[in-house]
Design goal:
Largest sheet: none
Radius of gyration: 21 Å
CATH superfamily of the largest domain: M75 peptidase, HXXE motif
Distance between the termini: 12 Å
Order of helices and strands: HHHHHHHHHHHH
CATH architecture of the largest domain: Up-down Bundle
Number of strands: 0
Strand content: under 5%
Number of domains: 2
Length: about 325
């Protein structure tokens, strides 16, 4: 079956959409993330108090969700310490609180901080430090203020490294099949690498970004939502979906009317949700609206499979987490 599938794909037209997806979405997206993270670090360097840093964190989240679910090449490894979530056991919170309690010197030294647990770095660390009522009331000149500055500096360094490393990955994707390319041996491999991440991102948003806070019908878990202290659960979900569809359109190299119609339904469902942090989902009406959004995203995923994957021989039901 796999041999027949491969022959079907190889018989299809050239997969030129890989170049467009890389040049028009991935590369500019990674660069935007690096620029937003650098702006955040500059803000924290000038004033590391929570009130000053919080507004600069929002553009960093926006830039990250535009590219963070496309975990290809350097993003796959980089995501671990940029956005360690879900943190099932609360390791990040424990590590950061221990650093504050002991005033660990790594919290004032970006070079040393790069060696701390991935769970205590990146965007989730800033969500906690800037949004937790027990932690965010720190004063200028305090250890926690210095720690926020260090986390922001470390994040900017990670973002810059990601941008630099993507130069090599972009070259590999856009020269797939050439004799010197050992990473992607055919156009199909490059296409499939991006396509599977589009589906995986949509699955992750429906099943984890929305599924975790929804919990069970009789026991919602609002504080399990991603970056809920920063009001990011809904913006992150919608931003990731928008990015997935944009990438799918570039990859397909053609209009996707059914996908666009399904995306519009996702947008409508998102607009009906009143609390972007999902902290009201213990209310049945609020919960229902998040469930509807989840259903719309799952429907969108099916349509992307049919409209992007099927024309290339990848039938609906293709496992987006299976690279074979």
């Amino acid at each position: 079956m796999r041999a027949a599938l491969l022959l079907s794909i190889l018989a299809s037209p050239a997969l030129a959409g890989v170049d467009e997806a890389v040049d028009q979405h991935l590369l500019p997206g990674v660069q935007s993330f690096a620029e937003a993270a650098e702006a955040l670090a500059r803000t924290a360097a000038d004033d590391c108090t929570a009130g000053a840093v919080r507004p600069a964190l929002q553009p960093v989240w926006d830039a990250w969700v535009a590219i963070g679910d496309l975990r290809i090449g350097p993003t796959e490894a980089g995501a671990l310490s940029i956005a360690f979530w879900p943190d099932e056991r609360g390791a990040g919170a424990r590590a950061l609180k221990a650093m504050i309690a002991s005033e660990d010197q790594a919290g004032r030294d970006p070079a040393a901080f790069a060696d701390v647990s991935a769970a205590a770095r990146g965007l989730p660390a800033l969500d906690l430090l800037l949004g937790d009522p027990d932690l965010s009331g720190y004063a200028a000149g305090s250890y926690t203020c210095d720690l926020v500055r260090t986390v922001a500096t470390d994040l900017a360094a990670q973002a810059e490294a990601l941008s630099e490393n993507w130069t090599t990955e972009a070259q590999a994707l856009t020269t797939a099949g050439e004799g010197s390319n050992a990473a992607y041996l055919s156009d199909d491999e490059a296409f499939r690498a991006i396509y599977t991440q589009i589906l995986s991102g949509l699955e992750f948003t429906a099943d984890t970004r929305l599924g975790r806070p929804l919990g069970d019908a009789d026991r919602p878990r609002p504080t399990r939502a991603e970056a809920w202290r920063s009001g990011r659960p809904l913006p992150n979900a919608l931003g990731s979906v928008e990015a997935s569809v944009h990438t799918a359109e570039l990859l397909a190299g053609a209009p996707l009317p059914k996908t666009e119609a399904a995306l519009d339904q996702v947008r409508r469902a998102g607009a009906a949700i009143r609390d972007p942090s999902f902290q009201d989902i213990e209310d049945p009406t609020a919960r229902l609206k998040v469930e509807i959004l989840q259903q719309r995203i799952r429907a969108l995923l099916d349509i992307v499979e049919a409209e992007v994957g099927s024309p290339r021989g990848l039938q609906p039901g293709f496992n987006s987490r299976d690279g074979d």
